[in-house]
């Protein structure tokens, strides 16, 4: 019996969809890369975030809101299945501003975005100045001007999310192959065959969730796979007692007590390294946000590559020339995990991806290119 | 990065132990002025720690410790840009050389280095057994640091356990200092010593070490220190402090009351700096350690990077000194100096020394099946309190590499940066996947290579744009 689905990529996108499909009774094989492959799933900050998402595409803002609403139940379900605590908190979050100009620009953007469609008027947010923020962010430094608060935002441990998805997939019979990098995919009358140095694997349908690997794997299947790397760098400090401070994209305290510092966007090609200049700058900004962190010891740092589409919004595409082949590319795999595991898996399973989520297909880039 | 705040050096040396001191001195004698970064406040490395102002005499520390004086004096005489108390916490190969982030006096400075000699030494092997995290349980090396730095001697007779020359050296030093160990638990079976008969050449080259070891053993025995050979298992127990040590021999567990246990399961190259620079490593089955690649003749690991001393493979202090010397000669040769006559005897002496090493490696092998035989509650990662059982569970859930295992369990995420659990994690994965140590792989090492605070980072950042 051939498998129903081959999923290329064992990151948080591939595993969420694998979980969703297996939950619907489909047989799934996941082919994953090497331990040291480019892995955004292991390099991100763990925000389940709504505010500011979709500035270029209100549909993406709707999706983020929708997924964040589904997250509490999703997290509970995974924990029930696997016993793994995702450290998920639907606590609200604050995106900081460092001067009046930034604060002004932010508010203007948000006002326009959240008036764009009727469903987005449900998004709640407000600008709070430094004094007002000190309640949610005790110890906030003088260099911070204020920030936008939204109750829809939250945080989780992205590594435990990934682990829980693995554990859940395992119990549902997903066939997972680590260290099996796919070099090419062939379409035939009965389905698809993926080739790797470890052998060939066949299924009726194939889903690319290969992160930046989409660039080479997608086009031969009639999919755009238009993604490029955008590097982030992250620092983690030693542990501290819980502070109750709300998460911010710039800095958050994790459930295990360390402060995670990030929010850098860099064009560095495929270099996942950390740079002296950026680490210094991140340290400086962390101390500006919470001056007491000057004493905190840096324990880890890493660089990781975001999987970025041309407009920053997710790319969900179904191939026209090779029916049964799909490509999923997005840099928001944590926030959207709840959506990926449910509606997206369902839309693929019922082969209605193009109908329901056509806005997110690669066609939008062709229009821009020719128009 | 090469703005005005970046320092430049033609030759930089990391570490001021025997290898670093020898390299620096030789280069200085040829008119070069190398920069030497070292963690400690005074030169000597681990072996000659505090030798600039010894806390204890030859009667306690032994001749080999004081032998370092000659090297130390040579180092202190030479014209060297010596920077004690410097932590190289960041390193990256860039263009023609290496960029270093060096923390000293609470400020991080960026250094652009054309030629880099790494002489950062060894560390004690992390070797899990139940209770190794208890207060009262220490590695023997830490015991020796206390001895050298502060003349600190245990106030109760300690139990020493493990394998390797340092175990007996420390026991002998404690005895001479008036605190004979309560018991020595040697993991090597007594029959291991028959190895010497099978390796006559190595035995001959290693006679200095063997006689020294035999002498120490005899002194310990005469003083009534009991040695138990062939320990198969070890367990430390107590709450919260160590109260008893249990050991298994010939299939039977026995116990001894103790409030201090010092363990030693050999030393391995300290990997952070070389791995952080992306230099390739291979599992060395005889040293039972990951060892970085380097060119045998020049000791170069990459263009502009030389690896010397125990950080490049355990060879001991004398070998480290020769390697430092050889790396200096490689650099001088590239600058057109005639060095061949000076090189040849060094290479020959080094070859003899390494032949003796093979014997020590065979004598003091750690048991490869040890980790798999530990109970599942045994902590592998002490920083994050991750047990063997948790790692097994994560591997069963699909963690198929060190990175994934770390992500799933937090193993190796703590302040020691995976130094203590890295080898164990590779051993577990190799066992689980039925593959080799090399194929199982190792953690990806990233900065900070040494501790630094956010405040120190902030103070070192370029001033924010107005």
TrEMBL record, chain A:
Pfam short name (any one): DAO
Keyword list, A-Z: Membrane, Oxidoreductase, Transmembrane, Transmembrane helix
Domain FAD dependent oxidoreductase: 4-346
Keyword Transmembrane helix among UniProt keywords: yes
Keyword Membrane: yes
Molecular function GO labels: oxidoreductase activity
Transmembrane domains' residue ranges: 6-22
Annotated Gene Ontology cellular component terms: cytoplasm
Stated name of the protein: FAD-binding oxidoreductase
Protein's organism: Bisbaumannia pacifica
Taxonomic lineage of the native organism: Bacteria, Pseudomonadati, Pseudomonadota, Gammaproteobacteria, Oceanospirillales
From TrEMBL, chain B:
Any one Gene Ontology molecular-function term assigned to this protein's record: oxidoreductase activity
Residues passing through the membrane, by range: none
Domain BFD-like [2Fe-2S]-binding span(s) in chain numbering: 379-430
Domain annotation FAD/NAD(P)-binding: ranges: 10-324
Protein name as it appears in the record: FAD-dependent oxidoreductase
Domain of life assignment: Bacteria
InterPro entries documented for this protein: BFD-like_2Fe2S-bd_dom (IPR007419), BFD-like_2Fe2S-bd_dom_sf (IPR041854), FAD/NAD-bd_sf (IPR036188), FAD/NAD-binding_dom (IPR023753), Metab_Enz_Cyan_OpOx_G3PDH (IPR051691), Opine_Oxase_asu/HCN_bsu (IPR017224)
Keyword Oxidoreductase: yes
Keywords for the protein's UniProt record, in alphabetical order: Oxidoreductase
Keyword Transmembrane included in the entry's annotation: no
